[in-house]
Design goal:
By secondary structure, the chain is mainly alpha-helical. It has 6 helices and 2 strands. The protein has a domain of 67 residues.
């Protein structure tokens, strides 16, 4: 996904400014944002109210975004694609969006460190296998 021009972003902002009924227009809002601002053209991969294994749900889930972003660079190795200094912007954005969705799904704070996240997952796993 790549940001569209400033005019498209302004039009989106003007269209949605002061709109009232959030629950009734959530899907339209997200599809408009993805298409008109971010240039995402694969709306068939967008899921709404995606249920998680913990009983919660993710408002918007975009399937295949990371794989689609990687597919744009068939000549690049994973080592190059995941080099922090060389990672393509679209791939980085896809991973950031996925990370945020996972953090939200598990109720984790967005500023948690990787060791804190791993520790929380280990606690969840221990509860699962111990039957608590």
């Amino acid at each position: 996904m790549a940001y569209k021009d400033r005019k498209s972003r302004k039009l989106f902002e003007d269209t949605w400014k002061d709109r009232g009924y959030e629950k009734g227009e959530t899907q339209q809002f997200w599809l408009s944002l993805l298409t008109n601002v971010l240039g995402y053209e694969h709306n068939d991969t967008v899921l709404f109210e995606h249920h998680t294994t913990t009983g919660g749900f993710i408002d918007v889930w975009i399937r295949q975004v990371i794989l689609d972003a990687r597919a744009q660079f068939p000549d690049k190795s994973l080592a190059i694609l995941y080099d922090p200094d060389k990672m393509p912007t679209d791939l980085k954005v896809a991973h950031e969006a996925n990370d945020k969705a996972v953090m939200d799904a598990y109720g984790f704070a967005h500023d948690m460190s990787e060791p804190e996240i791993v520790a929380e997952f280990m606690k969840m796993y221990q509860r699962l296998v111990s039957g608590d």
